[in-house]
Amino acid sequence: MSFDLSVIPNKNIIVGITGGIAAYKSAILVRRLKDAGFNVRVVMTEGAQAFITPLTFQALSGNPVHTQLLDPEAEAGMGHIELARWADLVLIAPASCDTLAKFAAGLADDLLSTLYLATSAPVWVAPAMNQQMWAAKATQRNLVTLVDDGVHVIMPESGSQACGDVGLGRMPEPEELARQVTDYFHKAQRAIAEKFGLLASKHVVITAGPTREAIDPVRYISNHSTGKMGFALAAACYAAGAKVTLIAGPVSLDTPNGVRRINVSSAVQMLDTSMQLLDEGCDVFIATAAVADYRVAEVAEHKIKKSGDELDIALIKNPDIVATIAQQDKRPFMVGFAAETRNVEEYAAGKLVAKKLDMIACNDVSRADIGFASDENAMTVFFAEGYHLPKRDLEKASKQEIAQQLVEAIHDALHHDPAQDEAF
Ligand code: C5P
Questions:
Q1: Which residues pair with 247 in a beta bridge?
Q2: Which residue spans of the chain are classified as CATH 3.40.50.10300?
Q3: Which of 89, 292, 362, 374 fits a disulfide with 338 by CB distance 3.0 to 4.6 angstroms?
Q4: What fold does the segment set 12-185 form as a domain?
Q5: What is the pLDDT of residue 162?
Q6: Which atom of ligand 1 is nearest to the CA of 337?
């Protein structure tokens, strides 16, 4: 089982909008929730419609807006009970004093209050009101009741209010509300992945990107690796429940959600960091980095001045990171990558043995449509002989999809018992 944390698959949010000037912020909220991948349906009280029209929310949510409890036509589409069952989360934003009071008292005289009683989904309220109304004893009493009843209250912020007062009662910005909702589902998914994911309870260390080998204080030797494959793998391993540490060479990519990133520059730094992480305890080591094979023997202390027609720079061999880690006593499951321009499978199989890897994924970088800077890749995966697992061809797909298939391959090898094969 695996869980993609970059999107929220098919989660349904009901946004309840009540009468208050903050209702204008709810338009952006619905937009942001849609952007994050949620299915959104909007329920509006009569008061809310005095501030903003249902048509706005119909356009933004892409669904009809629900306003009536006892309208036969509306109920024929999706009645209040179906609506209550449809929701994975009900977010009332803004939540007026009146709505809080209704919820606390258990009244059910309009669609929103009825929905509140009828749903088993988590209910969140984002109260927004004049600071005096927020501080009123009745409001505070109702909030205590709601918290007791399991409602999650998103505290209002302090500041200047539309009515001219200054104080507590402003609804948080829509982006912040959308972020909290997204976080909630990410955490829920992560909790499941940590228990049932393909790499649950594993620590995965991934090297990614190029290395940079200094010539002098302003120049270096490097290569065109973008780090995309390694970063996609980091996201896929995290989604599969692993704790992930990404050792990244100089690349301009955002760190995937939940992944610990350590930036390095040279091959020697990448190796040192890898060795430290091995001491921390590492179960799977994935080497996607395009490590420079050589570094400058003596890095100049000052910028090298232009002089003769030729310049000789002596290079010395860099350590092989993946091979070094594979030689350690506490060696993790080792995954290497091979980018070749010819005899792809033959060379890859040779590296699998020479570097003492458990698995190698190879691709043909002479193909213009895949590899390096491309968003797509196609690979062949080989396992070390002891696994008795046949090679796998991963057809051309996005680096995310390839990463997912590589996670499955790692899982299969980790859980494969060759003794079982021999029994047959
Ligand atoms: O030998 P080659 O560079 O083709 O091997 C590729 C594999 O070895 C990749 O997994 C790469 O990250 C790893 N490697 C390494 N340290 C090096 C060179 C390659 O970890 N110095």
A1: 207, 262
A2: 198-301+309-422
A3: 362
A4: Rossmann fold (3.40.50)
A5: 85
A6: 10
**Mean pLDDT, residues 60-83:** 87
**Which amino acid is present at 145?**
T
**Tell me: domain 198-301+309-422, CATH 3.40.50.300, correct?**
no
In angstroms, the CA 18 to CA 36 distance is 23
Which of 68-72, 175-179, 223-227 is the least confident region?
68-72
Question: Residue 55 to residues 36, 68, 88: CA-CA distances in angstroms?
Answer: 21, 15, 24
pLDDT at 2 over 50: no
Query: Looking up tokens 């949620």, which residue turns up?
Result: 38
pLDDT tier at 11, thresholds 50, 70, 90: very high
Q: Does the bond joining 217 to the residue before it have cis omega, within 30 degrees of 0?
A: no
- SS3 per residue for 300-363: CCCCCCCCCCCCCCCEEECCCHHHHHHCCCCCCEEEEEEEECCCHHHHHHHHHHHCCCCEEEEE
Residue ranges, comma separated, of all CATH 3.40.50.1950 domains in the chain are 12-185
The identity of residue 309, as a single letter, is D
CA angle 8, 12, 17 (to 5 degrees): 120
Q: Which of 222, 320, 346 to mutate to test the pocket of ligand 1 (most atoms within 8 A of CB)?
A: 320
% of the chain beyond a pLDDT of 90:
84
Residue 160's Cβ-side half-sphere holds a number of Cα atoms within 13 Å equal to 2
Cα of 369 from ligand 1 centre, angstroms: 22
Active site residue 362: no
Closest-CA residue to 403 (of 166, 213, 238): 238
Average pLDDT for 325-331: 95
Task: Determine the Cα–Cα distance for residues 141 and 127; give it in Å rounded to an integer.
Answer: 14
Q: Which of 46-60, 261-275, 322-336, 370-384 is the least confident region?
A: 370-384
Q: Which residues line ligand 1 (CB under 6 A)?
A: 207, 267, 287-289, 291, 318, 320-322, 336-338, 351
Q: What is the mean pLDDT of the chain?
A: 93
